[in-house]
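WARN no homologs supplied; continuing
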Amino acid sequence: MGSTGKTVVNSWNEWDPLRHVIVGRADDCHIPAEEPALEAKVPEDSDMRGQWGRRPQETIDRANELLDNFASQLKARGIRVDRPTSIDHSQPVVTPDFQTKSQFGCMPPRDVLLTVGSEILEATMSYRCRWFEYLNYRPLLKQYWEDDPKFRHEAAPKPRLTDADYYPDYLSDQIGVEKRLKWAEEKFFVTTEEEPLFDAADVLRFGRDLVVQHGFTTNEKGIEWLRRHFPDHRVHSVNFPGDPYPIHIDATFTPLRPGLILNNPQRRLPEAQREMFKKNDWEIVDSAQPAHNAPPPLCYSSTWLSMNVLVLDTKTVCVEKSEVYKLTDETLGMEGVEVDLRVRFYVF
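OK structure emitted
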């Protein structure tokens, strides 16, 4: 997207020089109450089980401080940084089909918004607590629409998210990792095929190719919806049998520059699905190990969130400051920009 003056929305891949980006906020971030999609994601031994409510203010304040610092780092490199307008996330989500006690937050814009060319698409989302999350970004999208006559603001059909959207098998807290891995290999996930479901963070952009992870947050109907919505693109479905909690592709499969992709060594892309990359001379290499043995307290994500880097251009990548192995092994000939963001994992 454009760097100065009026907004120009134009982004086709994950590695072109970054000129304009949205950095989220931790304002009023909540741990959501129990719901089917969330229960499937939380490991049986996680300290997150059974907890919900507003995050401790000190973690919100610290996360916001780090996000502000990150925004300043990007601005110092000449990148335009926009921020969302936080809504009241303590409000319940109530529809004719379901209700939850609170919402989530607006820390990760990439979960909700998918930019393809001159379009920004609001994802369906598969968590009930994230039903209204798009509202945090509507002021920005309204401004982009007014600034850029070629900008297309699209929203996928909102799913009903009734109980029919989720398999009850996943609601037990006694499943175990072995059974989860077996189910992942069989492509049996918590989301059914009742209606199209996808999160934007399950999509990677390779020009005219979109690579979409089939897992907990994106089902096959969601991938088919994307295929029909982007008829000029080739939409490819991938899955990672080694992941017992397959949510979002950015901690599993990360393109750094044309011809180079990092793959989580515990969640390798199956050989049959590697063929399209091999045919186009893409090398898939194992990611360096995370620097930490466990996530921070009150964190949903695995230690492999270390792979969630931000590429600034084909020679520069932002890496979390404490991930020392990433800075040495994983930059792979690129400049590693240190970003202190580990505490923001508290609100993710």
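The domain at 20-244+341-347 is CATH 3.75.10.10 (L-arginine/glycine Amidinotransferase; Chain A).
OK
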